Amino acid sequence: VFNSESKMPSFAIFIYLSDPSLGRFDTTTVSQQTLMEHFIQGITNRETICVSADSPADITAWEHLELNADGEVVRVKFQSLGLHGSMSFQYLPSTTQFLSMGGNDLIGSLDLELAPDSIRNINLIYNSFSGSLDFTHLPAQLEELTIYKNSLSGSVDLTRLPPSLQRLNVHNNRFSGSVTLTELPERMLYLNLGSNRFSGRVDLTVLPSRMERLFLHHNGFSGKTDFAQLPDSLRMLNVEGTKLSGTITLPKGTLRVVTFEGSEVEVLRQDHDVGLVK
């Protein structure tokens, strides 16, 4: 039996869609309707999205999808819908640019390496995702990844992030181990590693030249740190609740905000009249 739309045997489509171990496949060979139905298949109350769990409505009638002029999925906006269950990223249509599913009760792993390279923004905050996350194979065009307040764990490799990535927020998970901050994307503006289980020393001497906010707070980072080469663009630095030490000198009139309570970091402010003051 052949599927007239995909020009592929229907049993072959079933194999592709039912076996995640096969990894990423060419989603352009399958209708977007079929892909989206399989994307939400693991959500137990999916009727919230597709009207009927047993007989899903056409995706043009899905209230929380945004389609382009060709009827292709561009934005998936399933945030705060009380969703339960899991999802599989390999089924996202290749036209998807924005995925927001925060504020639900979603579980399972985040296999973001299977998400389409077209996706630019992923927001999965306030869920119960667990397991490790491969940061070295994120979607090629990703600009923002926000996954705070989950139960993700394991190490975090920040040395091979997509060059396009500007904002990364992994706050309040269970990530651990050391982190390398010397090979971040040059476009990165915002990085939040706060409230995890990271440890070891941090090198802040070659941060991206445009970085504006860096949060390292409430981790096990330790050791004497060179703060003398922070980029001029940095407006907020939080090392509160770490074991980092060293001295940060703030020029007079600077707009930089440094939060350092509970650490061994000393902050001095430049005053033209009396020199350096605490």
Automatic annotation (TrEMBL):
Taxonomic superkingdom: Eukaryota
Protein name: Leucine-rich repeat protein
Source organism: Paramoeba aestuarina
Lineage summary: Eukaryota, Amoebozoa, Discosea, Flabellinia, Dactylopodida
